[in-house]
Amino acid sequence: MPPRSPRRTGDASVAVRDLADVRKHLSFGHRRTAYETLLSVAVDGVLPRGALTELAQMFRCHPRTISRLWTQARLSLRGGHRAADVASKTKRNSGRYALRTSDEIEAAIRNVPQMQRQTLRSLSAACGIPMTTIFSHMKKNHRFKARSNYVKPHLTPANIEERLKFAMSFWFYLTKVKRRYYVYDEEVAARAVKSKRFITIPCRCGQAAI
Fold first, then answer.
1. Which domain, by its residues, includes 185?
2. 108 and 58 share a domain?
3. Number of domains, the chain
4. What's the pLDDT tens digit per position in 152-198?
5. Residue 82 region, left (φ>0) first, then alpha (ψ -120 to 50), else beta?
């Protein structure tokens, strides 16, 4: 008795296993096309036999990838979505977990004096958080941004006296008309002098008099 030839479904599953490593993830366009193809062949929401395997061969992926795509789209429609959700979950569920939460980063930044927040490098050194992490925090938290600050002529005599005492103890802290600080929305970097002409200008030591 001659040996029987292998079934076509077995050949298809072998071919799919061979091609499963070629394309592990489908793009959004491929996933949308695959779902629309399944919709066109489905009868009352039921797929014909072999539809998943045939489509998997077409897109060079595993049949379970197409099956998960079909199940995800159907569940999203039952959940109240106007359009079927065929987006991949890999982007949201991949990568390592964040070492610090957004609240922890914000608390660390708020503990740094504003004088040390003028650049991302000085802020990073003061709070111990890498600059890349702070930059990512700025992109996610729009309340945290760089703001330019100008001194304002609003000083009372008591303020002038306190500022002079402060300047005498930290004579090297010479201010500028414009400074930039990294602050949150409710934080205001308040600096004021009588006018711009009252900002101390350091003299060069050893300069010859004419």
1. 102-198
2. no
3. 2
4. 777 788 888 888 888 776 555 456 777 788 888 878 766 777 777 66
5. alpha
